[in-house]
Amino acid sequence: MGRVPTEEARAAGSLPRRVAVVGLGLMGASLARALRAAEPAVHLLGVEPDAAVRGRARREGVADDVADAPGQGLGACELAVLCTPVAAIEELLGPVSRLLPDGAVLTDVGGAKERVLARAAVEVRPGVAFVGAHPMFGGQGGYGNARADLWRDGTVAVCLDGAGEEAVARVAALHRALGAQVLTCRAAEHDAAVAAVSHLPYLLAGALALHAREAGPLARALAGPGLRDMTRLAAFAFDIQGEVSRRNAFLPGAARRLEEHLSRLLRAVADSPGSARAALEEARAARDELYPPAPEGA
What we know:
Structural class: alpha/beta
Mean pLDDT: 93
Number of strands: 9
CATH topology of the largest domain: Rossmann fold
Oligomer: single chain
Strand content: 5-15%
CATH architecture of the largest domain: 3-Layer(aba) Sandwich
Order of helices and strands: HEHEHEEHEHEEEHEHHHHHH
Shape: elongated
Strand order of the largest sheet: 3-2-1-4-5-6
């Protein structure tokens, strides 16, 4: 007998009875583990081309069935989640949707939404609803770094474009049942926002890493944790973050605004101590608004 679903699952509505997770990397395997923890009775189909990962997933019970490619097993699934890099998501939209039954929902975890949704409008077959979604968490590492609590206290953007209210509600309920906060938005709103807070920081981290490397051996020897923290995003593989960033039409505009802020700070620093203080204290206050500091003594 399965355990009683979690309070989060009850609050969000019942989870689907049969779910396919296509791609068992960090996000897909974490999603499968989270679903299993929330409701062990859910039947999970994993799809993963890597034979070693398939073997581990079977041994560890991450999924009930594990296949090397999308196949007939999808015909019994109420919901399928594409957890591959974004280029593969685009290629899988049509083939996976054609294997799902009428009334099923197809969704994803890709970090850029406008282009995926445009492709879905053409590729996803009638009778299957596509709902674009983006968990704003994750990290580096594949299957071996997956964990069941990755969704807990995270934020997931769910796009309203192209799908009916019921399909959007089903995807939102899934993420809430796993402990995440759900924000609904249009694909263009999503891409404009993540251009500022995710994709531009990724490019900036790369530029800083290149600049530091060119600064010479003394600069490299003196580099400390500040540079390491600032360049962390540059460590992401191109297929994960680069392919997503280059799909974001709002990225050039975000870069121009960043250039304006950097130019203004440089002018203030060159102008006078008072100007420098005012500009940099404004920047510090902006950072505190984004990430409020912990109270003293906490």
